[in-house]
Automatic annotation (TrEMBL):
<keyword id="KW-0030">Aminoacyl-tRNA synthetase</keyword>
<keyword id="KW-0436">Ligase</keyword>
<dbReference type="GO" id="GO:0005739">
    <property type="term" value="C:mitochondrion"/>
</dbReference>
<feature type="domain" description="Methionyl-tRNA synthetase anticodon-binding">
    <location>
        <begin position="461"/>
        <end position="554"/>
    </location>
</feature>
<dbReference type="GO" id="GO:0006431">
    <property type="term" value="P:methionyl-tRNA aminoacylation"/>
</dbReference>
<protein>
    <recommendedName>
        <fullName>Probable methionine--tRNA ligase, mitochondrial</fullName>
        <ecNumber>6.1.1.10</ecNumber>
    </recommendedName>
</protein>
<feature type="region of interest" description="Disordered">
    <location>
        <begin position="613"/>
        <end position="650"/>
    </location>
</feature>
<dbReference type="GO" id="GO:0004825">
    <property type="term" value="F:methionine-tRNA ligase activity"/>
</dbReference>
<feature type="domain" description="Methionyl/Leucyl tRNA synthetase">
    <location>
        <begin position="50"/>
        <end position="422"/>
    </location>
</feature>
<dbReference type="Pfam" id="PF09334">
    <property type="entry name" value="tRNA-synt_1g"/>
</dbReference>
<keyword id="KW-0067">ATP-binding</keyword>
<keyword id="KW-0547">Nucleotide-binding</keyword>
<dbReference type="InterPro" id="IPR023457">
    <property type="entry name" value="Met-tRNA_synth_2"/>
</dbReference>
<dbReference type="InterPro" id="IPR014729">
    <property type="entry name" value="Rossmann-like_a/b/a_fold"/>
</dbReference>
<dbReference type="InterPro" id="IPR033911">
    <property type="entry name" value="MetRS_core"/>
</dbReference>
<feature type="compositionally biased region" description="Basic and acidic residues">
    <location>
        <begin position="630"/>
        <end position="650"/>
    </location>
</feature>
<dbReference type="InterPro" id="IPR041872">
    <property type="entry name" value="Anticodon_Met"/>
</dbReference>
Length: 650
């Protein structure tokens, strides 16, 4: 057993990095084949709702690609729960108060509410175009939300023991307008304004300009909750993912936590929720914003304390970007402790999308408009790209070249290629998925020859097919979508290689029963890989996955997670009627057709040893490219399998 664990750590970089990180979470069998056996994630609780949230997005400007990524990530987590029969809710919306909105409206010469209406509609549109299944879209200018903020505020001000509630004082310090927060002295550094060369002060953390402010304000005694916060972190070490972010938060609380100024003078910031007991003060925009998660759960309208039915609170997952982690991991839990309400179960923190190695900024002209991107690439393709390339541990680079690479190589050449081969053969009556499924249900494949079952491509394919659902589920349970998608990609690679090497089309003209049985056996195996992949991909690509499953004839009631196992569904497949004549289909006339500008697919992303094939005469360069990359995908899977075989046999 020790030797097996050692061998596992030596696997090639082609093996999913997830396995190398999580050996302690895997149980290994002692069989000769050295199969991976995954521990079962905690069971899905169908008796209580699942509640996932995004931050509410600031409306001082239009949406960018990072906003879309956060929305899609939360939507995938929600749909994954629904795939297991769980009632699930997704909350998102727009943050519409504060100095930045007030100043942006003044700059445009419009009223703040008008600016909010315009930009909030853009976030609405983005969510609709991206097929985000939103249950609650909150706007902080909504009367119901203002009521919830006032309810929480009065509790903090009037119903807590001395020292634990709000107190009045004067705040002196450095304030960042861009970050909407005060910055401690030791987190401020000198800098020069790029345009003028003027000496200024900026936040070390964000680089944004700060200004010195002295003003009357109300404070929340954050330091009184320091011990409780640290105790909570210690008892819940996986509360923030990834764990490196938990370490950052704990360190910041230990070294930098101070009482929080939670109002601003209305003379300076009029656009916000008023303090219901002090008309000279506006409630701090971040207090206003953080309460939104409670508002959507019914706080202030259906319930006000933990003794009542709070469903769907507490949230199961808050999805946040790294720049606002402190507000969600420090300020929000402290406020909830003061309100005597349960804390969210987990915070999932992701890094930022950059372009050309630099942070996206309008001044540098490298901001990606998500609405234009959705119109260019179609929602499912862009959702897949964002989930497969997004990362929690480092900033992610966005470019149309990379989107094209993923679309053509992984979707067209891998998934689309397999679907075309199995469900849309060139002569559509060459075989029928329904016939193959019927033969499996009748147990006609049990007598297949040992030689066929010992064929190496089949052995590799079968191993991947049997483990993919458990591996995919394990990664999804840990909110690791990159690795989850890799599991599907590896299965499709192995299945494409399997069908290429077994060549069922060469058996079509054979008349002997054994050849017909072998052809249908191969088609059934490949159809099972597609069916299982289609079920598992539904949260990521709801439209394309549905199209794939429709093409395979999988009935809607059998598209849930319980059917994502080999042989679980014995009644699917599309059959042509005897009167339907055979017809040829256009290549790639299916899931992932060529899209605008992909014909100019960058040659530097094509492997050097395959460029010669691209120079061959072809009426359709797009089809030639896809066929070339499909071959490369199969060879990638083959090499991965050879490496695994060498190590397992050592």
């Amino acid at each position: 057993m020790a030797k097996l664990a050692l061998l596992a750590t030596q696997h090639s970089s082609r093996i999913s990095s997830y396995y190398r990180r999580s050996l302690s979470q895997l149980r290994w069998s002692s069989t000769f084949e050295t199969k991976r056996v995954f521990q079962k994630p905690s069971s899905f609780n169908t008796s209580v709702p699942y509640y996932v949230t995004t931050p509410i997005f600031y409306v001082n400007d239009a949406p960018h690609i990072g906003h879309l990524y956060t929305m899609v990530l939360a939507d995938v987590l929600k749909r994954w729960q629904q795939l297991h029969g769980v009632r699930a809710f997704l909350s998102t919306g727009t943050d519409e108060h504060g100095l930045k909105v007030q100043q942006a409206a003044e700059k445009k010469g419009v009223k703040p509410q008008e600016l909010c209406n315009t930009n909030s509609a853009k976030f609405h549109l983005m969510a609709r175009l991206a097929d985000i299944s939103v249950d609650y879209f909150i706007r902080t200018t909504d009367p119901g939300h203002k009521k919830a903020v006032s309810t929480a505020w009065l509790h903090l001000k009037n119903k807590l023991k001395a020292g634990l509630g709000l107190y009045e004082g004067t705040h002196k310090g450095w304030y960042s307008v861009a970050d909407e927060t005060f910055v401690p002295d030791d987190m401020v550094q000198p800098a020069k304004e790029p345009q003028t060369g003027k000496n200024i002060k900026v936040s070390k953390e964000t680089g944004n300009t700060v200004e010195w402010i002295e003003e009357k304000t109300w404070f929340f005694p954050m330091t009184e909750y320091k011990i409780r916060l640290l105790d909570f972190y210690n008892k819940n070490p996986r509360w923030i993912q990834p764990k490196s972010k938990m370490a950052e938060v704990r360190s910041w609380v230990e070294k930098n936590l101070s009482d929080l100024a939670v109002t601003r003078p209305r003379s300076r910031i009029a656009w916000g929720v008023r303090d219901p007991t002090d008309d000279s003060q506006t409630i701090y925009v971040w207090i206003d914003a953080l309460i939104n998660y409670l508002t959507n759960a019914g706080y202030g309208s259906k319930w006000t304390n933990a003794s009542q039915n709070m469903e769907p609170w507490p949230a199961d997952v808050h999805v946040v970007g790294k720049d606002i982690l402190r507000f969600h991991a420090v300020y929000l839990p402290a406020l909830l402790m003061a309100l005597n309400l349960p804390l969210p179960k987990q915070i999932l923190c992701h890094n930022h999308w950059i372009m050309g190695g630099r942070k996206m900024s309008k001044s540098t002209g490298n901001v990606v408009d998500p609405i234009l991107a959705l119109q260019r690439w179609e929602p499912d393709a862009l959702r897949y790209y964002l989930m497969s390339e997004g990362c929690r541990r480092k900033d992610m680079n966005y470019s149309n070249k990379l989107v094209a690479h993923v679309y053509v190589k992984q979707l067209q050449a891998n998934l689309g290629n397999l679907y075309y081969r199995v469900a849309k053969a060139k002569v559509t009556n060459a075989w029928r998925v329904s016939n193959a499924v019927e033969m499996y249900a009748a147990k006609e494949f049990e007598e297949m020859s040992d030689q066929a079952k010992k064929n190496q491509p089949y052995v590799t394919f079968l191993r991947e097919l049997k483990r993919v659902t458990a591996a995919f589920s394990f990664s999804m349970h840990n909110c690791d979508l990159q690795t989850a998608i890799k599991e599907i990609r590896h299965l499709l690679q192995d299945t494409n290689r399997y069908i290429s090497e077994t060549q069922p089309w060469n058996l079509v003209q054979q008349t002997d029963p054994e050849s017909k049985k072998r052809m249908n056996w191969i088609i059934f195996n490949c159809a099972e890989a597609l069916r299982i992949a289609g079920i598992l991909l539904q949260p990521i690509m709801p439209g394309k996955a549905a199209e794939l499953l429709d093409g395979l004839g999988v009935i809607p009631s059998r598209r849930t997670a319980e059917y994502a196992f080999m042989g679980r569904d014995e009644n699917y497949g599309t059959a042509l009627s005897p009167e339907t004549p055979p017809r040829r289909l256009k290549k790639w006339d299916a899931l992932f057709p060529p899209v605008p500008d992909v014909k100019e697919f960058p040659k530097d992303l094509i492997p050097e040893n395959m460029r010669a094939e691209m120079r061959k005469k072809s009426k359709n360069k797009m089809n030639q490219l896809v066929a070339t990359l499909a071959k490369e995908e199969r060879e990638t899977g083959s090499e991965r399998d050879r490496r695994m075989g060498r190590e397992e046999g050592a």
